[in-house]
Specification:
- This protein is an alpha/beta fold.
- The chain has 6 domains: 135 residues, no CATH class; 192 residues, P-loop containing nucleotide triphosphate hydrolases (Rossmann fold, 3-Layer(aba) Sandwich), CATH 3.40.50; 184 residues, P-loop containing nucleotide triphosphate hydrolases (Rossmann fold, 3-Layer(aba) Sandwich), CATH 3.40.50.300; 118 residues; 73 residues, no CATH class; 91 residues, no CATH class.
- Helices cover 49% and strands 12% of the residues.
- Helix 20 links the parallel strand 18 and strand 19.
- Helix 23 packs across helix 26 and helix 25 packs antiparallel against helix 26.
- The mean pLDDT is 85.
């Protein structure tokens, strides 16, 4: 059985939440430890999590919640609403005590509530907790998996406001702006789930979801379907919609705006339990649809969802969808989404400025395209290109850009297993890009997605680029698959909105975009994905020079957090800062010594888990900067230290078995650099973890050098092995764990020399080595019998039994369990109950004290369950 140092929340006796609390002293590392422990508990104590709804890891300063089955990235913060009043962190009783002990400086304390208090007050408020379980938790199926999902705080607050408008307020309308990629479709789903259950007030309401494109229609209906909501039906016409609205209640209907371009003479329905959810209602495609739709459904509630902010000219949208004086019913902007990890930041980079189309002249562009031509030759070429428009699509320019795209992609994007999109200004340009790319990479590496025209298009375009709906779907699915070789999508006026591919990192932009089109296009790159630290816009058209003009219709507040045209220069400054913070941990250690010596000294510095966690955070920040900037030559001054710090981190991960320092948390590009550096410095053996059960254990240990280094490596190797094996033989390995802790505590008090400490550790290792011999002496066959013997042998209430008798009793218990075992018995309480009853009878006959029977019997059954899982 397991000792669980956690808080469990019960509702009517059912364990619905587990809270793992860590010390606030471990300010940076505590959260990672808490989440790792919650993830590990699910494997070790699965029965506790069968009814679990919420997991929470906290260390006072930080708190993140998640659900079963999620990884570290699936845990999120809950933010307080501005109107919520909670005490400042400085007034928290724990903080007051920490300040008395000089564990905190006043400058470390923000004037805000503790994140732990914010999260617990919100999530575990009785009404909120039950509401989240009922209406904001779903199971999404897809790709052969089922994934549990829980709302983020912005989704919860938005839906609560929407529900209040529908149920209690006179003006049943509002606009919800949540930045692209932050879960807008799920917010719609949560709203539908919550309102669908308001049976008494809404009498099984209708939901009408209106989009302006069939692909969005499909995306939203797919979210509803995958999460178990009754699959929406599609209304293909106004007449079709009228029929659906008149046939019973409770339907969820999908339709497109185009069905409402023509005003209707009479309302489709006068029902007051119709809830209309429109997507991207600001777009010009909507035209007068809202007026027509309101006339068709005069008593319906209307809510507009948008992934980009409304511009300053969007007064009609506000008038139609917002109560007087209100802009947004709920807002979740770019900065909030990035800070919460709901989306990735978008970075900007300009390349080949001599080929930019915006802000330059034809002469400058010609010189950039043909740098080897003299003035006379350039004058001749200029006659072929009468305008910048014609010049922008010149094959020579597109070939130059394509070469640069491939070079950048292979250096910066492909090593992390990510993909890219090329945005062409015209269909002719898309065709030229495809031809240029096919010369540089295999043809299957790229695909064109654009509209085709049967009447006007060249015959070869029809053959190469015509795509049925199914063909286009196959290309999109191939692109989303990280294992598929399709790495580039070449697009023209398609897939720049609504296309959701988390594996997409880089958008190579060779088309001038403005306003909503620009915001929606660049947001394709901001989805969260492993090894993806940012989305990237690579500008070949020169949009950076007029970014302020392109987005002038939006307020500065709404655009806060969008990319900057000087992102590269900003990141270089950040790199210098992150380098300084990473190196400060090893102040006093000369990096000019022999690599082996440096690493051993640095690993000793990182022995305390809190120091290790702080270093890891600083180094990860440095990784993010390097990942964005490489292969920029300006990172060269930091390169040597960066690689060496990576080797130290790798060594700390292996030595201390620290699951927070996972290699997959770094980009693959960076990881490859670190491993190449380790190989070049010939320090692989120094950094490798040792395995105490390996045949070459002696050689592994010898490679670590000094007795001090050997003792540290052996200590952590023993910790790892004993912990891993304890579930299958708790008595034997528990004894060794106790011996190990005694040795470490004694050494910390008495400061034995390194050789003496190493000898004590080797004695524990040798005891583990000889466990099979110990079992054999007792007549026990294998580890299972030895494990059962261990539990029985440590029982003090069997004094009459000799060692041999206890060994025989262990065999009897195993036989008793195996005789009653059926398929999946470890999950069946009725079978376990019978086993416990028979084991108790057997132990009574052997003289076991009645008071000790329940505990020993439970331990024996739990041990048998562990062996079933092997």
């Amino acid at each position: 059985h397991f000792k669980l140092d956690s808080t469990v929340i019960f509702v009517n006796g059912i364990p619905l939440a587990v809270i793992e609390c860590k010390s606030p002293v471990a300010r940076e590392t505590g959260m990672g430890d808490a989440m790792a422990q919650l993830i590990r508990y699910q494997k070790e104590i699965p029965a506790l999590f069968r009814t679990n709804q919420v997991l929470l890891g906290t260390n006072l300063f930080g708190a993140k919640y998640g659900v079963i089955g999620t990884d570290h990235d699936g845990f999120h913060e809950w933010k307080a609403k501005p109107e919520e009043k909670l005490p400042d962190l400085s007034k928290h009783s724990t903080i007051i005590e920490m300040r008395k002990l000089d564990l905190l400086e006043d400058t470390d304390l923000p004037h805000s509530p503790a994140q732990q208090d914010v999260t617990i007050a919100a999530l575990f408020n009785k009404r909120n907790f039950l509401d989240i379980i009922r209406n904001f938790t779903v199971f999404e199926s897809g790709e052969g998996k089922v994934k549990k999902k829980i709302c983020r705080y912005q989704q919860f607050f938005a839906v609560q406001k929407l529900a209040a408008r529908v149920l209690t307020e006179k003006e049943k309308k509002g606009i919800i702006w949540h930045w692209q990629g932050s879960g807008k479709s799920l917010t719609m789903l949560f709203a539908a789930l919550k309102l669908r259950r308001e049976e008494a007030k809404l009498k099984n309401p209708y939901f009408l979801v209106v989009t302006d494109r069939r692909d969005l229609d499909k995306q939203i209906s797919g979210t509803f379907h995958d999460c178990g909501f009754p699959n929406p039906v599609r209304a293909e016409s106004g007449q079709d919609l009228y029929k659906m609205l008149s046939e019973g209640v409770g339907r969820t209907i999908m339709t497109t705006v185009q069905k409402f371009r023509t005003p209707l003479d009479n309302p489709l329905s006068t029902a007051d339990n119709i809830i209309v959810l429109t997507d991207e209602a600001h777009r010009t495609q909507y035209g007068n649809f809202a007026f027509n739709l309101r006339k068709a459904l005069p008593n319906a509630a209307f809510f507009a969802f948008t992934g980009t902010p409304l511009d300053k000219t969007g007064r009609n949208t506000y008038k139609l969808f917002s109560p007087s004086g209100e802009n947004y019913m709920h807002r979740y902007g770019i900065m909030e989404a990035e800070a919460d990890g709901a989306t990735k930041p978008i970075k900007y980079m300009s390349r080949l400025p001599s080929l930019h189309l915006v802000g330059g002249s034809i002469d400058a562009l010609l010189f950039g395209m043909f740098p080897d031509k003299d003035k006379k030759e350039l004058a001749k070429i200029r006659k072929q290109y009468a305008s910048m428009e014609v010049l922008s699509g010149a094959p020579q320019r597109i070939e130059r850009v394509a070469m640069d795209i491939v070079e950048h992609y292979h250096q910066a994007i492909r090593p992390n297993g990510l993909k890219a999109m090329i945005v062409a200004k015209s269909r002719a340009a898309a065709d030229l890009y495809k031809k240029a790319m096919d010369k540089l990479v295999p043809p299957e590496f790229s695909a064109v997605v654009m509209t085709t025209n049967d009447r006007e298009d060249p015959e070869d375009w029809k053959q190469k680029y015509f795509l049925s709906s199914r063909d286009e779907e196959i290309i999109k699915e191939r692109f989303k698959d990280p294992k598929d070789s399709l790495s580039f999508l070449i697009v023209c006026d398609k897939l720049l909105t609504g296309f959701d591919a988390p594996v997409l990192q880089a958008m190579y932009l060779d088309q001038r975009l403005i306003e909503h089109n620009l915001l929606q296009a660049v947001a394709r790159t901001n989805r969260v994905y492993p090894c993806k630290n940012y989305g990237l816009i690579v500008d070949y058209v020169g949009i950076g020079s007029e970014l302020a003009t392109a987005l002038k219709k939006f307020s500065a507040e709404d655009l806060a957090g969008l990319f900057h045209t000087d992102d590269v220069e900003r990141e270089l400054k950040q790199l210098a800062l992150h380098h300084k913070l990473s190196m400060k941990f090893f102040a006093g250690i000369s990096f000019d010594e022999e690599p082996r010596t440096i690493i051993q000294k640095c690993l000793e510095v990182l022995r305390p888990p809190t120091i290790r966690g702080d270093f890891d955070k600083a180094y990860r920040d440095m990784v993010k900067s390097m990942d964005f900037l490489m292969p920029d030559l300006r990172v060269e001054p930091f390169f040597r230290d960066f690689k060496f710090l990576g080797a130290i981190r790798e060594g700390a991960k292996n030595l201390y078995r620290d699951e927070r320092l996972k290699s997959e948390d770094l980009s693959a590009k960076v990881e490859a650099l670190i491993h190449a550096h380790i190989a070049a410095e010939k320090i692989e053996e120094l950094l490798k973890p040792i395995t105490i059960t390996a045949p070459d254990f002696a050689q592994q240990l010898e490679a670590k050098g000094s007795d001090k280094a050997k003792a540290v490596h052996l200590e952590y190797a023993l910790r790892d092995t004993l912990h891993s094996a304890a579930a299958e033989n708790p008595a034997f390995y528990g004894t060794l764990q106790k011996q190990l802790e005694d040795v470490i505590v004694a050494n910390s008090k008495e400061r034995h020399d390194d050789a003496e400490l190493l000898l004590s550790l080797m004695q524990i290792k040798e005891a583990e080595d000889h466990k099979d011999e110990a079992a054999k002496k007792l007549g026990l066959a294998g580890g299972k019998e030895f494990a059962f013997f261990g539990l029985i042998d440590r029982c003090e209430d069997l004094p009459a039994l000799k060692k041999e008798d206890r060994a025989a009793l262990a065999k009897e218990v195993i036989t008793l369990i195996e005789d009653r075992a059926v398929a999946e018995w470890d999950e069946r309480e009725d079978i376990q109950k019978e086993m416990r009853r028979e084991i108790k009878r057997l132990l009574r006959r052997k003289g076991c004290d009645e008071d000790k029977l329940p505990a020993l019997t439970r331990e024996l059954i739990e041990l048998a369950q562990q062996w079933v899982k092997r």
